[in-house]
Amino acid sequence: GKTIAVLRVAVTVTAPCCRGCLIVTFRSNLPHCVSVLSACTQQSSRSTGSRLSLRAAESEKPFGNSISRYNGETERTERGGMPHRHAEEKFHLSEERSYVSTQYSLRPRREEIKAMDSKEENIVTTTRSASLKTSQAPATQTKDLEFGGVPGVLLIMLGLPACLCLLLLMCKQKEPSLLNFPPPLPAWQDLWETRVFGVYILWFLMQALFYLLPVGKVVEGMPLADGRRLKYRLNGFCALLLTSAVIGAAVFWGADLYYVYGHFLQFALAAAAFSLGLSVYLAVRAAGAPPCALAPSSSGNAIYDFFIGRELNPRIGTFDLKYFCELRPGLIGWVVVNLAMLLAEMRLQNRAAPSLAMTLVNSFQLLYVVDALWNEEALLTTMDITHDGFGFMLAFGDLVWVPFIYSFQAFYLVGHPNEVSWPMASLIIALKLCGYVIFRRANSQKNAFRKNPADPKLAHLKTIHTSTGKDLLVSGWWGFVRHPNYLGDLLMALAWSLPCGFGHALPYFYVAYFTVLLVHREARDERHCRRRYGLAWEQYCRRVPYRILPRVY
């Protein structure tokens, strides 16, 4: 009976090839069975030691007695004069033989193997079909479309270029009054110049060359859906310095930047045509992109995805198209356009030096661009990079709207001078600095917390823990309002427009547009954070009730 207990343990823990040996030898030769058992258990102990120990612990005494018997004691002595157990042991022996012969005969094993293979094939087929459905889900699932859905994005794509042209034409008028609306349209042949388009292409290629220079540190972006982190080279500020050197050398050698002012509308249309062509390329390219490369904002609708962008990070080799366009051609081009307007003002108004109003506008906006390029790494955590794809929205916004609408105050001052007193200038400078301090410190606090929440410098800040494992700041700048960086942005936008005076509403178009943009952006952030953080976000909203402007909104 103790022998059978040993066999039970051995049959359970040994490999299938060894179990067959145990059955044959048990029936024919018990002493030989003992030797086979010893060899099998030694062989299997290397891979199944933990299971053997567990079984041995469950029947510790029988196992020990069996070992003693194998060391020379006879079976009669082992039974110790206990005949009442003989029938029970016979029952266990027949039960064990039946169990083993049923489990380890060759024919049933073949059938079991076939059955297992059939099950595995079914599992693989099911897994593949489920994987296929999962991979197709992003393209077919229903999403809440932003910007008014397909009708809204169609209106935006048609309305933005028209709005741009009307604003520039009205600003060219001597009396840009609403009574003179709409402004007279130039001849169609005057709206397009191949030379202007060629200059714009050269500008774009020059910035691309500066982007590819192996200078500046390389950092990793936020994790993608598949866990990868893309690498980015931070050399935007270096590109600004190189551009300044090239423009300075060109002016020194006789290049006339007044050409930019004289063909400002043509440059805007050339940039618009280029951005449209880039958007078409991005849409065609994204048609073959794998599901893991698609942006979370993509919907599967061709028109909507053309606008919002289908692919999250379109790259040609290591050249990241979206990241490049966000900061280089348009943002640095904005500085060059402002410089051209400053020189045009001096020429048209016969000034030996630029006006105080033009100086304020150029200085304020240059500081904004320098700050963005100096803190280039902060762009990697924004919604533009992590959520929105690269389509018409960002292509037109980065390449057209930024350089030709953000420079609107300087363009306005060329044809409509405004004298600013020093007391008024002091107030405007104070407003600008106030907005900049709020903007920069809020963004710096957020970026530092994202990089290292355990930073001792941030230990005084209060947080709310979320189900995602991240924390929400509820003190410091982010306990003041939910979007203090937007508040700082709006104050700076107002400071850019005030030097133009109050003679017309045109210079304040940027403030109105930017307010609508940031309110809409805040609403998008709100929906995104509510879905992501759930109850923690609701608690944060109760702690910080105002969104952008304290006591107002």
Automatic annotation (TrEMBL):
EC nos: 1.3.1.70
Biological pathway: Steroid biosynthesis; cholesterol biosynthesis
Catalytic activity entry: 4,4-dimethyl-8,14-cholestadien-3beta-ol + NADPH + H(+) = 4,4-dimethyl-5alpha-cholest-8-en-3beta-ol + NADP(+); 5alpha-cholest-8,14-dien-3beta-ol + NADPH + H(+) = 5alpha-cholest-8-en-3beta-ol + NADP(+); 4,4-dimethyl-5alpha-cholesta-8,24-dien-3beta-ol + NADP(+) = 4,4-dimethyl-5alpha-cholesta-8,14,24-trien-3beta-ol + NADPH + H(+)
Pfam families membership: ERG4_ERG24
Compositional bias annotation for Basic and acidic residues: 72-83
Region spans: Disordered: 63-83
Subcellular location: Endoplasmic reticulum membrane; Nucleus inner membrane
Gene Ontology cellular component list: endoplasmic reticulum membrane; nuclear inner membrane
Entry-linked PANTHER family: DELTA(14)-STEROL REDUCTASE, DELTA(14)-STEROL REDUCTASE LBR
Record-given protein name: Delta(14)-sterol reductase
